[in-house]
Amino acid sequence: MAPPAAEPQADSEENPGQAVQPFDPDAANLAQLIFWDERDSLVLVEIPDEQQELFDQLLASDDPAIDKYLVDLGAFPNAYRLQVIDYLRARFETVPFNSVYNFPEIFELDPADTDTDGYVEFKHALIAGRLSEMAAFIDPSSARTIDAREVAWGGVVVDGIPPLEFPTQVSAEDADGWINESDAVIGVSINGDARAYPIRIIAWHEMVNDTIGGVPVSLAYCTLCGSAILYDGRLAGALYRFGTSGLLYRSNKLMYDRTTRTLWNQFTGEPAWGPLVGQGLRLTSLPVVYTTWGDWRANHPDSTVLSIETGFTRNYGPGVAYASYNANPEPIFAVSSRDDRLPSKEDVYVVRLGEALGVYPIALLAAEGLIEDTVGGLDLVIVATGNGLGGRAYEAGEVPFVAADPVAGSLTDAEGGSWTVAEDALHGPGGATLPRLNGHNAFWFAIVNQAPDAVLFEG
Length: 459
Prior knowledge:
Layout: H1 49-60, H2 66-75, H3 81-92, H4 117-128, H5 132-135, E1 151-153, E2 164-165, E3 169-171, H6 172-175, E4 184-190, E5 193-198, H7 199-202, E6 207-212, E7 215-222, E8 227-232, E9 234-235, E10 238-239, E11 242-249, E12 252-257, E13 263-265, E14 270-273, E15 284-286, E16 289-292, H8 293-299, E17 304-306, H9 323-327, E18 347-353, E19 356-361, H10 362-368, E20 370-375, E21 378-384, E22 391-395, E23 401-405, E24 410-413, E25 418-421, E26 425-427, E27 433-437, E28 439-443, H11 444-450, E29 455-456
Parallel strand pairs: 2-6, 5-17, 19-29
Antiparallel strand pairs: 1-11, 3-17, 4-5, 4-16, 6-7, 7-8, 8-15, 9-10, 11-12, 12-13, 13-14, 18-19, 18-28, 20-21, 21-22, 22-27, 23-24, 24-25, 25-26, 26-27
């Protein structure tokens, strides 16, 4: 639906008979709307006449470019937010919703519009007026690879969702008093060092900076996307550790590195906005498995587990964090693309081979037990976990597999040979091995919006 038509433009007082030029939001320096700073209380702040007049011009315009400004003014805490919501109620003739996210039409990007320099200056000024540390991430003078219109405030301050820094690991026996066999965990094993990260804990923190098997890693968990991705922190001769920016891109968290404070796309592992953009960098992702503590412990009796004593006060009960979000079939924050081949929040398993991504519905993988496929020219086999929650991917080489027993953790090849599923590789007859490949779980909408070239396996 188009914005309401602006009132007819009056003749210019200086030049009677000559129409006033239409209001162009991208040329109007809307950064001038921001008159408060971090010390001001938005409860008490009064909008000056000059700013209110400029804002009224924005609302009266019929230029489609106004929508990107209204999205930010409706989503981020500011003095104009309630006026924006009232405007949207009238424009879309809806019941009195109180959130800009209840008006999905306004998030449909106009193909003729762009994230202009003026808009980026406005967005930076808007966020800087409340959260200067966060605003520094979207410096208008810095390079970026993402559309600034789709960068949204996630509702928290920088590291307001506190990362865990080299957290304590405890033995399985020490965790028996609180962990359940059915608790979902992210299982990791590097150089024989097996660790379990319970979802019920990391959902409250979304980032774990750690060292596993001598390798510096960051486990970046985007709860909104259902994706826990383990990254090697070593890249191009540098070591990066990460925090949470409080900003989102297409409902996916933007993390930042502590060295350069560049924003990184959590899903792709690439710099998105800041000093490191344009240097050809991409973090190496490492294999993880989404499974249960009972399954992981049975296969890794010497595994440690993330301690529930994190130093933070949180309700780490099973399923507590993001309970309402996980019960909702749709993402909260708007995304620009949709693919109805699967429901938006369908669980999928993603195999990552550089630029090539293969995507496998978890329900299909669980039903089949194993899937053979080719991704990026490489033949591979994906094996379901015994509980049907996740999977592991391996190179297939020239071995055709005919059967799988996910509960026993074994595969059978066409010649009757038995292969054992392990974290490093498939181990087969005569000491043969097939190496493990990178993979993790995610929601389907994350694939559609973050990796549109990924290939969905449909059976």
